[in-house]
Amino acid sequence: MWNKRREEEPPKPFKPLAPQGVSPIPASAPAPVAYSSVEVKKEITPVSSTPMARVDPDGRANSIGKSVKVVGQIYSKEDLFVDGTVEGTLEASEHKLTIGPHGTIQASIKAREVLVLGTIQGNVEAFDRLEIRKDAKLLGDIRTARIVIEDGAYFKGSIDIIKPEPVKAASKLPAIAPAAAAPANPAPAAAPVAENRR
Amino acid sequence: MLRGSRGGPPADNGSGRPPVLSRVVPAREGMSTRPSRGLEEFFGHIHGQSGLTLLDLGGATQQNVNFITDLGHRLTSENFLQILGEVSGADGLAAQSNPGRIEYFLRQALDFPDQNFDGVLTWDVLEYLSPAMLTAVVERLHRIVRPGSYLLAFFHADDKLEAVPHYAFRIQDVKTLHVSQQGMRKPVQLFNNRSLEKLFARSESVKFFLTKDRLREVVVKA
Asked: Given an 8 Å threshold on Cβ–Cβ distance, is A157 in contact with B82?
């Protein structure tokens, strides 16, 4: 019913909202200059014109741009691309962390996977994989399951290869295979997990 | 015979036969594969052990990282010559005789706790050091390795060479090195067996292997 009444109403002429202190402009006035200047002011509200995905090679990660500096602790629950400066700690335990070519990190890092194209000064723990690309620089100690160092990368520090945790893998096994089938030979099922280091 | 293959493009034996194992096997320009008795000796001493801490002064390379960590060891990597170049700057050898610069260099390149390492791969870096710097570096190496651990070093034995090729050494297996030439460098000092024994006088033993390409491979027991 309400809809019907609305349909019956004649369409109102467009009347733009005037900001406080500015007198409304008559609808009959032909394109006043003062009106358009107010609109321009509204349009220049500071919004980045550069899509964030453009600086992220994968187009999926959250990004810290190259003109941004962060001092403190960063915890990320999604993939993160850092092309700026970070001092403190940087943690993305279950996700991929990419340090872009302009990225300068003075922080301890924990992530599932770390890709370095810029500079890191600090210890890095990459539970799954660490890759140091050409011209990247890493000064610090590394703990990772797998490591890739391109020719031309600079690394100073120690490398500790950690084995993937077999406990988590073993705990998932009963869900896949019924308990009745498991006792036959459980050892071979766990063995490849331990060997999955490289 | 092998000098040509080290200084210029890889030599071809021209016989059409497979290369003899004791020769440098050309892989591609500037890169070759060579057997290394010193390397074999070094890894022979730590064979069967795991969880050791090794120091590689040749900078981080994928092959060395893979090889050493696959054996279950922890690897510490230092690009010794790059740090030396940064510390020496334009002054070159003069800076290497300055006590302040020597101390600074040791802090940059070899600042580790005493008895931290179970083995050191120095490759050929020691022959590019001035006598004062070399003495300080060897002294520091003695401090940071555990007693009874081993050190592998290479020294060119040909005293007629003006400059020698500088290599990146990559471990292919326990007795084979993949070497890629990084440029030419003039060794500051040339050593014979006697002078090397003197240099490592504090060590328990020094073992030499002279290769056909006049490279003296030295395994030192600290």
From this structure: no
Which residues are CB-neighbours of A9 under 8 A, at least 6 positions away? Answer: none
- On whether both A79 and A108 belong to a single domain, the answer is yes
DSSP per residue, B1-25: -HHHHHHSSPP---S-SPPPTTS-E
Phi-psi region of B35 (alpha: psi -120 to 50; beta: other; left: phi over 0): beta
> Does B69 contact chain A (CB < 8 Å)?
yes
If one counts the domains in chain A, the total is: 2
B30: closest CA of chain A, how far (Å): 15
Are the Cβ atoms of A159 and B74 closer than 8 angstroms?
yes
User: Looking at the complex, does the CB of residue B50 fall below 8 Å from at least one CB of chain A?
Assistant: no
Residue A167 lies in a domain: no
Domain that holds residue B56: 33-221
Among B23, B41, B19, B74, CA closest to B154:
B41
Domain co-membership, A32 together with A68: no
Pairing mode of beta strands A85-99, A69-75: parallel
> Which one of B77, B79, B82 has the shortest CB-CB distance to A159?
B77
ipTM given for this complex: 0.77
pTM reported for the whole predicted model: 0.70
pLDDT in tens, A131-171: 999 999 999 999 999 999 998 899 999 999 987 666 554 45
Asked if B24 and B163 count as a contact pair (C-beta separation under 8 A), the reply is no
